[in-house]
Here is the input.
Amino acid sequence: MIDSIIKRDGREVSFDSDKITDAIMKAFQASNSAKTRRTAEDITRQVLEEIETNESIGTPSVEDVQDTVERVLIENGFVRTAKAYILYRAERSRIREMNTRLMRIYDDITNKAAVDSDIKRENANINGDTAMGAMLKYGSEGAKQFNMMFMIKPEHAEAHRNGDIHIHDMDFLTLTTTCCQIDLIKLFKNGFSTGHGYLREPKDIRSYSALACIAI
Here is the structure.
């Protein structure tokens, strides 16, 4: 008997066979089939039997269940329903992808003006309303998500998301230390030019700190 199922995010949750039956019924309806819920329940029983007798499957995943549903539908001659189920499955995957954090951020970048978007105003050096500014933000936000998912420990990524810590310039994590690569001692010695004026070497800690904040 199947007691649990592994979700796409890796969580193991209680198994509910009614969800399989509901999905099959939706596929019947989408393919204009006259079959009733009783038929959907019979298909569900066959799906469960096939999974339970498959020695390669321990705790089934969502993908295991869906693959088996498609196969059992075709074996029972419900080819149009199987096609509808496959399309339903693809649409559900598309909706899940649209609701990921990165896709919601991309939607924000695409459809909101900088005045209404914190993300577009995040970097004062970039005009988020221009084509190049928006493209830079697409790349920046994509890099952030990649780094949080693949490059740092899950507990650190979670702490960053929750605001317990802040990893500055997360998008540059795999490339360089960005602002922190500036050698302030070398920069301030004898002063430096900004291109719009010349800054003298600071003489006290307060001036040094203020200029350091501007530089980095």
